[in-house]
Amino acid sequence: MSTNELTAYGYFFVIVFLVVVTYSYIYHLYTKRKDATGVDYENYSNMALKDDIGDTPVKPISDEKEK
Fold first, then answer.
1. In degrees to the nearest 10, what's the CA dihedral of 25, 57, 60, 44?
2. What is the full DSSP assignment across 1-52?
3. Residues 13-54: tens digit of each pLDDT
4. In this structure, what DSSP letter does residue 55 have?
5. CA dist 9 → 41, 54, 57, 67 (Å)
6. Which of the 8 DSSP states describes residue 53?
């Protein structure tokens, strides 16, 4: 086995490994939308698009203080 073949096999396995890691990370992002505190940050994704003064807020503000 020459060094060129060894390099080609190495590149192939690195690419396969990176593809598997990328797809597993994407799967993790779509299945675990809430963080440890229970906040769903998916609601904040359209904040830049819906920033007009008449749009509804992402998180409603209440006058009552949280206890």
1. 10
2. --HHHHHHHHHHHHHHHHHHHHHHHHHHHHH--B-TT--BGGGGGGTTTS-S
3. 999 999 999 999 988 877 776 666 777 677 777 777 777 888
4. S
5. 41, 58, 53, 60
6. T
